[in-house]
Amino acid sequence: MSILKRIESPADLRKLSPEQFPRLCEEIREQIVSVISNVGGHLASNLGVVELTVALHYVLHTPDDLIVWDTSNQTYAHKLLTGRQEQFPTIRQFEGLSGFCKREESRYDTFDAGHAGTGVSAATGFVEAREQRQQSHKVVCVVGDGALTAGLTLEGLQHAGAFQKDMVVILNDNQMSISQNVGAISAYLNRLITGEFCTRIQKETNQILGLVPHIGEPVKKIANRAQELAKGLVLPGLLFEELGFRYVGPIDGHKFAHLLPTLQNVLTLNGPTLLHVVTKKGLGYEPAMKNPVWFHASAPFDVKTGAPKQRAKCPSYSSVAIETLLRLAKDDPRIVAITAAMCEGTGLTAFKDAFPDRLYDVGIAEQHAVTFAAGMAAQGMRPVIPIYSTFLQRAYDQVIHDVATQNLPVTFCIDRGGLVAEDGATHHGAFDLAYLRHIPNMVVMAPADENELQHMVKSCISCNRPVAVRYPRGASLGVDMDPVPEVLPLGKGVLLREGTDIALVAVGVMVHKAVEAAERLEQEGISAAVMNARFVKPLDGELLGDVARHVKCLLTIEESSVMGGFGSAVLEWLSEEEMMHVPTKCVGLPDRFIEQGPQELLREHYSLTADGIYQHAKRLFAQVSVPTVLT
Question: Is 272 in a helix, a strand, or coil?
């Protein structure tokens, strides 16, 4: 009988003998690969932490003892061991299991997290709460080595080190975050004693010992082993010791003979301890081991080959943006690209191949990326930061303080704007229009399609001030592309359809859906104008005013938070122009964190489809068309 199927909770796991763990890990990996091949998800990272997850739930008394997973996209084995096996095929699906930890989902999920770097700070808070409440449970935080580039992780480490309270931080070192790790800390962890002097001494010592009969070879092996131990103790450990942590490791994260006794020992130590565990991303599934970047967050794939089950017929918005940037960079040496550990995700690999000296990967350090860009812009460069909407939130102060207040020409290519799908609440780009449009000096635009996107990228580079272009995740629409990108008139929208009954004022990917809705309204005798706003800021007040004066009501449509977003900008303009007599309704994402689910399903759920817009417009027009009854 399957070992995994007998485990309904970690209490069942603790009844097993460690000799059964290797087979259990095989079953866990088989289940993860089987499910993720059908629904997509974070595969490589989850395959790499199976043994560590089993070992933690075996030596700890969860859920009384607490495990904090930094980022928490590597918790699939954790979910399988904590009573969620039957639900596991629903992972990342609408109304199914979250792909991350979710406190409302299970008492074993201690902290919701979808961004790297939160774990150590949260765990430190758990420790201090335990002390304040005079409790005695263990607190363990699992953090990836990529998250060490996040400033928040280092802030948490120095705080915890100063407190000197009992806690364990497990550094899961697989030499990767999403892309290959970069920076001085990554180099520090991977440093080897390879200097000329040490290399020569080792070589000469081995030669001498090799000449000693009987005992030379055994002593040589001991000497080499001692050198490796010294490297582990001195090189990686020194940084953490200086931060106040006792450093243990590195140890093999796939061998229970190393994991179990080491975990049991470090849990008895007093004060903060950092355990350095070395793992392999994608272990157990050859395609994921060979290509851990693609399998970090893969689409559904064929288990036998590892190839995607479906390929998009049209290029992604990301690739269109970066291809345009490439074309512009060939003629403008001032253009440089900056990424925060998302080179592949944002499509920058092509830029890196073409201009390796003009691509800067700063690691999971969004705040530094923005201020670094500001510094380059202040010296005459044209830095471009392709970044997911949800990740730019982490650098909000830097956008204001370091870029906007100085009116510096930094371009933000905001990828994954709007509904992002299966990653859920922490990853939807719902707030960018709202949090950017009220910043002085900032220009904010959103293309209706990929052709307009290439013109907007060109416009960003030509705009001598802070500017953001926001585009969605996924394949583009397949519209005809103009041969050459051109600069769009700043703050000017486009009237796509004239109408006298209702105006559909849309921005971004909602524009084409608004046109479809207008055509349906026309069939029912309702004359609908459609305005492609293009710019959220500055808003085209001249065109908006002309449209509003010729209709009975107005509907704004955006795939972003309706609170403070594009619709709010339109209402503010109508108020300023004393045109509030025009009945106006704003359609967008509601005041809540949006759940996970396929993009089109979520758009349908929140009426952000052609039919949804049609229904909203029809109801609004019906309301304003009802004759006023005098009493």
Answer: strand
Predicted confidence at residue 421, as pLDDT, reads: 82
Percentage above 70 pLDDT, the chain: 89
DSSP assignment string, 62-107? TTTSEEEESS-TT-HHHHHHTT-TTTGGGTTSTTS--SS--TTT-T
Q: Which residue is it, tokens 């942590």?
A: 245
Token duo for residue 605: 């759920």
Please state the length of the chain: 631
Per the listing, tokens 């908006």 go with: 544
- Contact (CB, 8 A) for 497 and 475: no
Helices (H) and strands (E) in the chain, counts: 24, 17
The CATH topology of domain 494-625 is Rossmann fold (3.40.50)
In the block, tokens 């020992």 appear at: 265
- Rounded-to-5 percentages of helix, strand, coil across the chain: 45, 15, 40
Q: Are 167 and 127 in contact (CB under 8 A)?
A: yes
The CATH number of domain 317-470, selected from 3.40.50.970, 2.70.98.90, 3.40.50.300, 3.40.50.800: 3.40.50.970
Q: Across residues 179-191, what is the average pLDDT?
A: 52
178 confidence band (pLDDT: 50, 70, 90): very low
Q: What is the CATH number of domain 4-8+21-296?
A: 3.40.50.970
Per the CB < 8 A criterion, the answer to whether 13 and 54 are in contact is: yes
Domain boundaries, the chain: 4-8+21-296, 317-470, 494-625
Helix axes 21-39, 50-59, angle to 10 degrees: 130
74 CB burial (10 A radius; 0-12, 13-18, 19+): buried
Q: Which residues pair with 457 in a beta bridge?
A: none
Q: For all residues of the chain together, what is the average pLDDT?
A: 89
Parallel/antiparallel/unpaired status of strands 528-532 and 494-497: antiparallel
d(CA 113, CA 84): 19
Contact (CB, 8 A) for 509 and 559: yes
Whether the predicted pLDDT of 188 surpasses 60: no
Residues marked active site are found at: 281, 366, 394
Report the alpha-carbon distance of residue 297 to residue 454 in Å, rounded: 27
Two structure tokens written together for 396: 């909000």
pTM of the model: 0.86
Same fold, 4-8+21-296 and 317-470: yes
8: helix, strand or coil:
coil
